[in-house]
Specification:
625 residues; 8-stranded mixed sheet; 6-stranded mixed sheet; 22 strands; 35% helix; elongated
């Protein structure tokens, strides 16, 4: 029979179909199995519509056969089959999808899930094979036909012998090249892995003969290698079962095997949504962060399925960055896929799913916080940094989503607390949330300002992560309460009488304070007396938006600019050192200058700021001793 050319499509178009549309050659098996599944679904649908007898869905299956010697891979099904005209129409015309036509005409209420849409998946077979043969016999017919092609040079359709109804696709696997290993497609374990990854939830059994080790009959310790039919897929997705049929152990085992974790998940979220878009979601929150979670190498995303067929391994658009720790999957038949089914087209429905998932994840975290505090604190120790970064990132656009989920160590509770819990304990006339930043809670606890604030009976939130203060500045307020860094110039703990007395003190001591500032030679922008140090003699406070801790963080970043916080040296007006300084100003200005340098160095040490000239500091201490 004369070879026919592909209808209405050029050689260049078919070449593009074979070599450009798919980025991963393994996809060919997914496409051919999906076609086989569609054929079985069509037969099942027709059997219902035509009230046919003698057809049992339990008998339907997909068979894979490997022949290494002849380099062939076969995918067979006992589905609806195709006659000569259908072979010509469906395989002779690129982008002609019989599945799509069937889906358009099928009764939506029938239990049928047609996967194919574009009619190009079949041609992915040419990525790994030199020749493709399709033998098909329609159900209810005794005639069979063979479609054969080597790719762009056209195809033939001829009668053939086929004992049973259905379709068998035979691929002549290519020889290895310098850049490609095609032998792997003749290896049963590679095929098993590909089926498990992409087609595990096809609703018909996918069978293949595989070697296995078996105890010899009549022996107790001798084994032999036998070849047995093996089912490669699990068929029914866990997420499509009724929740009352699934145990915690089922969820946990699925998570550990699917996402390669050695621990059970901390939280499982299983939801089914119907409406504008229908989808199933099975999400997990791990107990710990993966080794690469806080690195550039980490890839966020959920697995995306369409009717149980894996489309994307990591669909990043389904998760916001601040919930990137969530693992899991989404299965929906409603999304618009691109022609290769490897990626999505721009689809507003995807955004709808993502928004719904965001709300669901937040809601479940809030429930955990309320009902399982220990679990939430464990989660927060692993992923709280990401939530705080989410508040800071994007100039605070997501702060309302996350503000009730973040936690900080409390000076009064001695544990992690939420902002809501802090506010609920605030004094009646307290207008601000006090916080302090440092390397550890112990170091913050020793700050002079912390002593003063606690002495007034106020709770302090201790911020020990680099992102904390940046996040708090993006929050700006919580429940109409502003935030105050106790190490900044805005700390206001005095009564009106104390403020007036302090103002007079600073005014009367202007010359003394200016002399100390001059001695420090530009290291501070202002020197003043304060009431905010309780029993401590001196401290540094920041002026303006850039605090000391923010200066440290920014300057520690790779290729970061040299940032400098504007500092004030504050001296406790109620400490004996204040009187000593006043006396020196009258009697020994040279010694006053040395005292100023020592006090500044002491304030640097207390605040965690390094001393610029340790040798000078040491000499001054020894001299004054």
């Amino acid at each position: 029979m004369a070879k026919k050319q592909f209808k209405a499509e050029s050689k260049k178009l078919l070449d593009m179909m074979i070599n450009s549309i798919y980025t991963n050659k393994d996809i060919f098996l997914r496409e051919l199995i999906s076609n086989a599944s569609d054929a079985l679904d069509k037969l099942y649908y027709n059997s219902l519509s035509e009230d046919a007898s003698g057809l049992s869905r339990a008998d339907y299956k997909i068979q894979i056969e490997l022949d290494k010697e002849n380099r062939t891979l076969k995918i067979s099904d006992n589905g609806c089959g195709m006659d000569a005209k259908e072979l010509e129409t469906n395989l002779g015309t690129i982008a002609k999808s019989g599945s799509l036509d069937f889906k358009s005409n099928a009764d939506k209420e029938k239990d049928v899930e047609i996967i194919g849409q574009f009619g190009v998946g079949f041609y992915s077979a040419f990525m790994v094979s030199d020749e493709v043969t399709v033998e098909s016999r329609p159900h209810g017919s005794s005639e069979a036909y063979c479609w054969k092609s080597s790719g762009v040079d056209g195809y033939t359709v001829t009668p053939c012998e086929k004992e049973t109804a259905g379709t068998t696709v035979t691929l002549k696997i290519k020889e290895n090249t310098e850049n490609e290993n095609y032998d792997k497609y003749l290896d049963p374990y590679t095929i098993k892995d590909i089926v498990s990854k992409y087609s595990d939830y096809i609703r018909y059994p996918i069978m293949m003969d595989m070697e296995t080790s078996k105890l010899k009959e009549g022996t107790t310790d001798e084994y032999e290698t036998v070849t047995e039919p093996t089912q490669l897929n699990s068929m029914v997705p866990l997420w499509r079962k009724n929740k009352n049929e699934i145990t915690k152990e089922d969820y946990d085992n699925f998570y550990k095997s699917k996402f390669y974790d050695y621990e059970d998940p901390l939280l499982t979220i299983h939801s089914k949504t119907e409406g504008q878009i229908s989808y199933d979601a099975l999400l997990y929150i791990p107990q710990h962060a993966s080794y690469d979670y806080y690195s550039k190498e980490f890839e966020k995303g959920l697995q995306l399925y369409s009717n149980g067929v894996l489309i994307m391994d990591k669909c990043a658009d389904l998760l916001p960055d601040y919930f990137s720790f969530v693992k899991g999957l989404v299965d929906s038949a409603d999304l618009t896929l691109n022609i290769s089914r490897e990626t999505l087209q721009q689809d507003h429905l995807l955004k709808v799913i993502a928004k719904n998932l965001e709300k669901k994840i937040k809601s479940e975290l809030e429930k955990m916080l309320k009902n399982k505090r220990e679990d939430y604190e464990k989660f927060y120790r692993a992923f709280g940094l990401q939530l705080k970064f989410g508040i800071y990132n994007g100039f605070g656009v997501h702060k309302d989503v996350l503000k009730d989920l973040v936690m900080f160590y409390s000076s009064s509770e001695k544990k992690l607390v939420t902002l809501g819990e802090y506010v609920s304990r605030m004094k009646e006339d307290q207008k601000t949330i006090y916080y302090a930043c440092g390397e550890t809670t112990d170091k913050i606890d020793m700050l002079p300002q912390a002593d003063a604030v606690k002495a007034k009976g106020f709770e302090i939130l201790y911020c020990t992560d680099d992102v904390d203060e940046f996040a708090i500045q993006m929050l700006r307020e919580y429940n109409d309460k502003t935030f105050t860094n106790i190490c900044a110039d805005k700390l206001d703990l005095d009564t009106e009488e104390e403020k007036k007395a302090l103002e007079d003190e600073n005014k009367d001591s202007t010359e003394l304070l200016d002399a100390i500032k001059t001695a420090l030679d530009g290291k501070v922008s202002v020197v003043r007396f304060t009431n905010n140090l309780h029993e401590h003699p001196v401290c540094l406070t920041s002026e303006g938006m850039l605090s000391l801790e923010m200066e440290k963080v920014l300057n520690s970043m790779p290729n970061g600019n040299s940032m400098k916080a504007e500092l004030a040296l504050e001296i406790n007006r109620n400490h004996p050192i204040a009187e000593k300084l006043k006396a020196l100003f009258e009697t020994d200005k040279d010694k006053l200058s040395k005292y100023a340098k020592i006090l500044y160095a002491e304030a640097c040490l207390i605040s965690g700021k390094s001393i610029e000239n340790p040798a000078e500091f040491s000499e001054l201490v020894c001299e004054l001793m």
